[in-house]
Write a structure and sequence with these properties.
Layout lengths: L6 H11 L17 H16 L3 E4 L5 E5 L9 E6 L12 H17 L7 E6 L12 H6 L5 H5 L9 H11 L4 E2 L8 E7 L4 H5 L3 E7 L1 E10 L3 E2 L11 H15 L8 E10 L5 E2 L2 E10 L2 H18 L4 E10 L2 E2 L3 H12 L4 E6 L14 E6 L15 H19 L1
C-alpha cells in the first residue's frame, strides 16, 4: 500500500502557519502558548476538524490529531513535533514535523486506505523552552520524566505560569477530548530540519537519525556588592560582572575540545542592577553543555564546578543544575522503516547523529522511536534566515507517510 502526498498543499500550509508570529525579517516569534502559538494551534485544529479527524488534549498542553484505525483499541502510530519557536526563529523548525504528519494523515485519508492502528499527529507543547524553561517540557511530562505539577508551576519569562496558558489552550479548543498522560504509542516518528550543514554539504535529501547527544544546563549566579561607580576604587570593589567574565573565559579554556565534539555555550547573561553608575552586585549566566558521551558530560560538570569556585573571587558564586538529558540511540523498526522507505522511493539518504535536542529523545524506552532530517540552507536554524526547500519538505513528508502507513498496517 502506498500513498502520495500533495507537495503544493504542504508548502502552502507552511506559508500559512508562518503568518502566526511573523517577523519583519521573514521568521517567526512564536513562544510556547503565547498569542501567536495559540492561534497556530487553533489553525491546526480547524484543518484537522475539517478533515473529519478527532482532537485530544492532555493536561500539559500536548495536542493530538487522530485518524481512527480499524481497531480503535490498538495504540496509535504517532508523528509530529512542535509549533513554538525561538525569539526571531525560523519558519520550519518544529512546524515541519507537525505539517508533515498532518499531510500524511490527510493523504492516507483521501486515498481510502484503512490501517489497523489509529494514526496521530502530535503537537508537543514547549519544545523550545524559550518562554518556559526547560525545553521539551510537554514530551518530558508525557513520558514521565518530569512531573505534571512541576511543569504547570513553571513561571515564564513574562511572569505567567504555564498552568494559566494550558487553561487558555483548553478554552480555545473546546472540541478536544481529554488525553490521559502516558497513553501508549505503537511507534513514534519525528521529522525535523537538520539544523546543521551536513546534509546540504553532502547533497543528501534525507538523514536517518541514529541518536541524539546528551545535554546539561547549568546556571551560574555570582554575588558581589553594589557600589558607586565613580567613587569606589578597584581594591574595594566586588564587581560581579568582572568575576563572571573571568569565570566564562576560564571555562572556555578549561572546556576546549580539540576534536570539536563538546558543545559549550553561554547563551544567556544578566547583571543587576544594570545601571550606568552602579558597580554590578549580581551577575548570572546560563551554560549549555552537549556531548554524545554521558561520562564526558559528567566530567565537564565537575570542571564547571571547580572552575567557578576557583575564579569567583573576590565575589561568591554558585552553580545550579537546571536540566539534563542523557544521550539516546534510535534503533529498531522505525529507523529500519525510514531506511527502507528512502530506498524504495530512491531518495538519497545517509545516517546522521543529532546535535540538537528533540522531543523524541524521551521515547525509545517506551515505544519504537525514530527520527528523520531534511537539509536546511547553510545549516542555519533558530534564525529568521532559516529555510528548507519545497522539494526537501515534500520528500521528508512522503517518508513520514510511508513509514506511518507501514507501521500502522
Amino acid at each position: 500500500m502506498t500513498v502520495t502526498i500533495d507537495s503544493d498543499r504542504l508548502w502552502n500550509r507552511h506559508m500559512e502557519l508562518a503568518r502566526f508570529g511573523a517577523t519583519a525579517g521573514g521568521g517567526v516569534w512564536r513562544l510556547a502558548l503565547d498569542g501567536s502559538d495559540l492561534e497556530a494551534h487553533r489553525a491546526l485544529a480547524d484543518i484537522a476538524l475539517g478533515l473529519g479527524f478527532k482532537l485530544f488534549l492532555d493536561d500539559v498542553g500536548n495536542l493530538f490529531i487522530r485518524r481512527e484505525g480499524l481497531d480503535p483499541l490498538l495504540p496509535p502510530v504517532v508523528s509530529g513535533s512542535h509549533c513554538d519557536s525561538q525569539p526571531n526563529g525560523g519558519r520550519f523548525d518544529g512546524i515541519f514535523g507537525v505539517l508533515a504528519a498532518l499531510e500524511a494523515l490527510q493523504s492516507i485519508q483521501q486515498s481510502g486506505v484503512q490501517t489497523r492502528h489509529p494514526l496521530e499527529c502530535v503537537v508537543w507543547n514547549n519544545e523550545e523552552g524559550s518562554r518556559f524553561a526547560p525545553g521539551c517540557m510537554g514530551s518530558a511530562v508525557y513520558s514521565g520524566v518530569m512531573s505534571l505539577e512541576q511543569a504547570l508551576a513553571t513561571i515564564g519569562d513574562d511572569g505567567v505560569p504555564l498552568r494559566d496558558c494550558v487553561r487558555a489552550l483548553r478554552e480555545l479548543l473546546p472540541e478536544a477530548e481529554h488525553r490521559p498522560l502516558g497513553t501508549p504509542f505503537a511507534a513514534l516518528i519525528e521529522a525535523h530540519i537538520e539544523q546543521g550543514p551536513e546534509l546540504e554539504e553532502g547533497g543528501i535529501t534525507l538523514g536517518v537519525v541514529t541518536g541524539m547527544q546528551g545535554n546539561l544546563r547549568l546556571m551560574v549566579d555570582v554575588t558581589g556588592r553594589e557600589d558607586h561607580s565613580g567613587t569606589t576604587p578597584r581594591r574595594r570593589r566586588k564587581d560581579a560582572f568582572f568575576s563572571a567574565v573571568t569565570i566564562v573565559q576560564a571555562l572556555r579554556e578549561a572546556l576546549h575540545d580539540e576534536k570539536d565534539v563538546l558543545r559549550f555555550t553561554v547563551g544567556r547573561f544578566s547583571i543587576s542592577p544594570n545601571a550606568w553608575s552602579v558597580v554590578p552586585g549580581r551577575a548570572s549566566f546560563a551554560i549549555d553543555l552537549r556531548h554524545p558521551d554521558q561520562a564526558e558530560l559528567e566530567r565537564c560538570h565537575a570542571i564547571v564546578i571547580e572552575t567557578v569556585a576557583r575564579h569567583a573571587a573576590p565575589c561568591e558564586a554558585t552553580v545550579t543544575q537546571k536540566s539534563s538529558a542523557i544521550p539516546v540511540s534510535f534503533e529498531g523498526p522505525v529507523r529500519d522503516a525510514i531506511q527502507r522507505a528512502a530506498q524504495l522511493r530512491q531518495i538519497s539518504h545517509r545516517s546522521i547523529y543529532s546535535g540538537a535536542g528533540h522531543d523524541s529523545r524521551y521515547f525509545p524506552g517506551l515505544c519504537p522511536t525514530g527520527m528523520l532530517f531534511i537539509p536546511c540552507k547553510d545549516g542555519i536554524s533558530h534564525n529568521e534566515a532559516e529555510y528548507a526547500s519545497p522539494s526537501d519538505i515534500a520528500a521528508g513528508a512522503q517518508i513520514v507517510a510511508d513509514v506511518m502507513l507501514e507501521l500502522a498496517s
